[in-house]
Design a protein that fits this description.
Layout (H helix, E strand, L loop, with lengths): L3 H4 L10 H15 L6 H8 L3 H4 L6 H13 L11 H18 L1 H9 L8 H14 L3 H24 L6 H16 L7 H6 L8 H21 L1
Helix pairs in contact: 2-3, 2-5, 6-7, 6-8, 6-9, 6-12, 7-9, 8-9, 9-12
């Protein structure tokens, strides 16, 4: 005969792990941004009590660092070629693509800089390229900062600025901006009058590639000097 305990349906609850907590936190940040990340909100996603999360993470700060590390670990790293300009351009393009896929990653990378292992792989890779190219230690560090600032700024503009619109909406906003510029008094804004509609021309990729090339040209001039 069956015992009374085996006659009752068994309810299986998913085991709470650090990995599941981080995955839920990443999904929350992707959807609602870093400010929405609380221990309670993550616990609700997992169907658990908020206090149970503290067995696996010390608190919100550690969880944010783990989210950043998880997101940053997915940034592509194409094989290095030995051509420092091409390799730095590859780093910039890979990071930009990752930031555009996850706009909130830009905020996390800038606001939590230096707080964990998230940046280590990217930093090591970039400094390795610059060192092999012949840059001195200080110039290599400053070049890394300049490249990171450029990519983060470009990605943030693309994600939340006027560039975030696409298709007919983007074209309408382009037209509105061109009309607004054309309506400005030329005697007061002669440079804007001279630039005219060119200010809103060009694709996002063209703008990024021009800025990146100009930055790399500056690095090359610095290296020659």
């Amino acid at each position: 005969m069956s015992s009374p305990s085996t006659d009752k349906p068994q309810v299986m609850r998913a085991v709470l792990t650090r990995e599941r907590i981080v995955a839920a936190a990443v999904a929350l940040v992707d959807e609602r941004g870093p400010d929405a990340l609380t221990m309670r909100a993550v616990a609700q996603r997992l169907g658990a009590g908020a206090m149970s999360l503290y067995r696996h993470v010390s608190g919100r700060d550690e969880l944010l660092d783990l989210v950043l590390e998880a997101m940053a670990s997915e940034i592509a790293q194409r094989p290095l070629t030995g051509d420092w300009r091409r390799d730095l351009a590859g780093v910039a393009e890979d990071v930009r693509a990752a930031l555009l896929r996850r706009p909130h990653l830009t905020v996390l990378l800038t606001s939590r800089s230096g707080r964990g292992a998230a940046e280590i792989a990217m930093l090591e890779r970039t400094l390795r390229i610059l060192r092999a190219a012949g840059f001195g230690r200080r110039d290599a560090v400053l070049a890394n900062h300049a490249l990171g600032n450029f990519v983060a700024g470009a990605a943030l503009w693309e994600a939340v600025g006027m560039a975030a619109s696409t298709g007919p909406t983007r074209e309408a906003r382009r037209a509105e901006a061109a009309e607004a510029i054309a309506a400005l008094p030329v005697d007061r804004y002669p440079a804007l009058g001279w630039a005219g509609g060119a200010i809103v021309e060009g694709s996002l990729d063209e703008r990024f590639e021009f800025g990146l090339a100009a930055l790399l040209d500056g690095f090359a001039a610095r290296l020659r000097s």
